[in-house]
Amino acid sequence: MDIKQLTALVTVAEVGSVTRAARVLHLVQPAVTRQIRLLEDEVGVPLFERTRQGMVPTEAGVRLVERARRALSELERARAEIRPDPREVSGIVTVGVLESVMDLVVPPLVEVVRERHPGVELRILTAYSGHLQQWLDDGSVDMSLLYNLTDTPSLAVVPLLEERLWAVAPPDGGLDPRRPVAWSRVARHPLVLPVAGHGLRALIDQARAGAGDPQIAVETNSMHLQKKLVLAGCGWSVLPAAGVAADVEAGTFSGAPLGRPSITRKVVLGLQRGVRPPRAVETVAGELTRLVRELVRTRAWPSSRPA
User: Fold this and answer.
1) Which of 23, 56, 81 is the last residue of a domain?
2) Using CA atoms, how far apart are residues 141 and 137, in angstroms rounded to an integer?
């Protein structure tokens, strides 16, 4: 099992075709096929099923692809960290970012890392908090913004801020961002909510427990889709301030902080415990922490306060 075989394995799994993988890798098709066959001979099981839709990994293939991708990433990181000048911070850093705050956080983070640490290559992954925590646990990301998480045996957290959730309605909804809206008013409308089991949904369910049984029009795992459905007139929604305040200010939505009861979430930076992270990871974690705290201090992060 060598790097060429693992690279061929991951590439075929990603593009779904030996022909396309050969073009990506700048190889002839038989060479890629040979690498896969050698790998299958070594592990003793088929790694792909040849279907009409292309090359589909078997159960064993899925497991090996996951580990191969991680091994190749670590090798790439090691190459990036080896520099003639040991004073230069260099390497690959993968950062998980909550979908609701990516527009607020990602552009300034990329800019500050590019300006201050040109030897660092950033990789940004966005998702909901539950997925990000799982990726942090299994090493797919080096750090992640998460919410309502405390220290665990595998993760250490740095508290950053607490922010309020907002009610979001179509432009003619009559909500005023300067005046909190009671949950009882929100509950009179059909609701577009995150799917059950999502962390944000748990906060919302706690608030609506005393407001009867409001109608849930639709559930989705995408904040972007929540917004689209609100604009389409499917109902009102509840979202973090960072994800909607700019839209409300622009007049795209009507929105206001929730009150009676207010709902807040705590945003933290999660890091892996145990092994000391590479210098590049420590550096980016420091930059991200300073950036978020500055956004709170200058009120660029709406409806927030320091943790």
Assistant:
1) 81
2) 8
